[in-house]
Design a protein that fits this description.
This protein is mostly helical. It has one domain (about 10-130). The chain is built from 4 helices and no strands.
Length: about 140
Amino acid sequence: MRQQFQRPTAAFIGASWAALVVGAATYLFGLWNAAMQLNEKGYYFTILMYGLFASVSLQKSVRDRLEGTPVTGIYFMFCWISLGLSVALLAIGLWNATLADSEKGFYAMSFVLSLFASVAVQKNVRDVTLIKGNFPAQGDE
């Protein structure tokens, strides 16, 4: 049985990409201009990259499972753990940072926006690719 996918609208695709760019760019802009040591900036940059990767990987794993593509339980668990760790590490870092509360909120909100948007962008890319027929749906090989 072949699953039917509805193509995401151009508005949703555009809004998803805009949210990802705005979220990541504002986070990185704030980091660039922050009065922090380079090792602190590296910590926050790494957390953003780790969080983006974990959220996309988790979304792909969930989607694969829904479509019947095998995903091992350990990989699925590590996706959840990685996403949780990235959020926890950001929260711990911001809790202990010597930043104004408004700056902490700025980083937290741009981080969460970036994670949400990365999931939406990955979903849109996958849906459009399936609809265009660039790779077969499960069971069509």
